[in-house]
Structures are given as structure tokens and as C-alpha cells.
TrEMBL record:
Residues 86-141 form the HNH domain. GO terms for molecular function: endonuclease activity; nucleic acid binding; zinc ion binding. GO terms for biological process: anaerobic respiration. CDD domains: HNHc (cd00085). This is HNH domain-containing protein. SUPFAM superfamilies: Multiheme cytochromes. Gene3D superfamilies: 1.10.30.50. It comes from Klebsiella variicola. The lineage of its organism: Bacteria, Pseudomonadati, Pseudomonadota, Gammaproteobacteria, Enterobacterales. It comes from the Bacteria. InterPro entries: HNH, HNH_nuc, Multihaem_cyt_sf.
Amino acid sequence: MVQWARKKLVDYKYLHNAKESGLGIWKLTPDGIKKAESVSTRVNIDYPDDVPETFYEGAVKQIKVNKYERSKTARDKCIDHYGCQCSVCNMDFEETYGETGKDYIHVHHITPLSDIGERYKLDPVKDLRPVCPNCHAMIHRQKPSLTIEALKALMKKAQK
């Protein structure tokens, strides 16, 4: 392999045998030097111990997203029916955080609004469920979204 590479470099006139230095000594020609200087040898390899000393965050970036209309009344009716306990993991923010966590919960659409794609008539008891933010994120972590039952099964399997 090395012999083949050396032959190619000689053929391209990038390398010559420096006979004055003895056998096995090769030198770059002026063209070889130019070529070597024109090729970047920097390789971006991230090593775990090569952590930058300074990190920057907070630059403003504009992002265009679709925002789907939500009904506060439907959310309230869902919570009136199911309470503020997560339908997946049973987390209750008020029990965990006291007054600060009172009435805090996400409300999940069983069928994602993005799948429906249009305005529709909603039944807060059939179509919505209270879920904590962590479970809500896990439900929507993949496409298609996990069902509440599927996420419960994953949690049960992981706890064994």
C-alpha cells in the first residue's frame, strides 16, 4: 500500500528520491510542497476531554412553527374530570411541590392536533388526558406518538 502511494506521488511529481541522502529517503518536490500546503490536515475529532472553556448561548433565532388553537375551557373540563394527576406515571405536582404545584399539569390530545390538521369538535373527556411534562415529552418523542398505554408499558418494562 505504501509502495503504491509512493509510486503515485512520484508519478504526480510530488515526491522524489533524495539520492544524496541515501536509500529510502524521499523528499517533496516544490509541486509536492504546494500540494501539501493546499490540503487541510485539520481533522475535527471531538475527544471527551477536549471541552471548550467557554460556552455561548442566548442568540436570538426566529423559527416559524404552526401553533394550533387550544380551548382553555376544554382543558379545564378535562382537569375537572380527571384531576391534576398524570395519566401515565400518576405524578401529582401539588403532592410533590405543595402550593407551587397546585393545578399544574399538561393536557395531552389523544389524537395529535397536527394529525387532524383542521378545526374539529372536541370532547374533553374522550379526547384529552392530563399528563406531566416528562411523560408528555416522551409521548411525543417519536413519530407516530406513543399512546398513553404504550408509554405505561415502556415504564413498567424499564422498572423490571
